[in-house]
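Box 3.1 — From sequence to structure: CDP-glycerol glycerophosphotransferase
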Amino acid sequence: MDVIFDTKSLYYLPQYLPVYNELCKLGIKSTFVFYDGVHNDVINKIISDEKLQHFWVKDEEKAAAYYEERKADWVFFSNTFHYLDRVHKVSKTAQMAHGIGPKTSYYTQSSRPMGVRFVEGAYRTQRLREMFPNDVFVDVGFCKLDPIFNGEISDISLSETYGLKDDFPTILYAPTFYPSSIECFPADWPAEFKDFNIIIKPHYFSLSKSKYYKQQALLKTWSEFDNVYLAKVEDYSLVPFLSISDVLVSDASSSLFEFALLNKPVIWCDFLKLRLGYRGIFSYRFKKRMDKDYGDYSNIAVHAKKYENLKSLIVQQLDNPEEFESIRLEMSEKLAGKVDGSASKRIVEYVMSNI
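Predicted structure (token representation):
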């Protein structure tokens, strides 16, 4: 069997790699298609570290031409692809979303149907089947966290790896790029948390796109504090940070739910920097961007209405991590389905039985 992973964005890798590793165990050949861009050096290092067979393309049209020539059994995507009709003439296609967040884009990604979409849980599977009754959706769970549940990520030293204190509680701040809480944090906020480690893992776009230069300036300022580790572009995976952190602070990011699946406390920032076109009479645009289950999902965390509430909530949740445990456990099935470390195995079993 021959498998290709279309890797248009670097942040697709954490979802792909558990499946790739399962394929490797069976001796199945896989190739990652990377798109030429500003972070080629970073990608080349990842290719070397992970020993990935790979192919470079300029754009989606070039990728489609490669897929037509290669005629692999399966091509995996993490988002829409404009040349699916061409790919479907030579290969089967599969889609794996790169996150399980509260944005409507999770569902609109299926408006251009792949051969199959692997979905996290019975609830999301049923919703997608109702929205797109002619397409194929298979509930497998959330494979991104398989390495944590399988114990493949462990024994990470905070001091040796990130220059932080091994005996300090660790806050993971993982904001999304939009709508984001980044601009609502003070320039000196790490000083208020001097007795905590702070790992800041922004979205890839916050680090790489020039339009977010204000976010980048704040991130650089925060990185200069001794108790802060700012994840770089090469820290493409959130998974190791989820594993070693004690509490997560975020906004409308899928990291909220990924952390909650580990049954650890989450602080949801309700204070966001909204563009003018999303405020006041235009607030409906923000609501349209969020999924209809946004309100239900929000119950999984304690909410910080403003930055000034944040520290007391963090301390309170670290002292009482069990407060939202029942809700986290109850919501885990709706968010991600099975969390048994075997989602990637189920994906591989499906593709092997459907060549």
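Summary of the box: The two ends are 8 Å apart (CA to CA).
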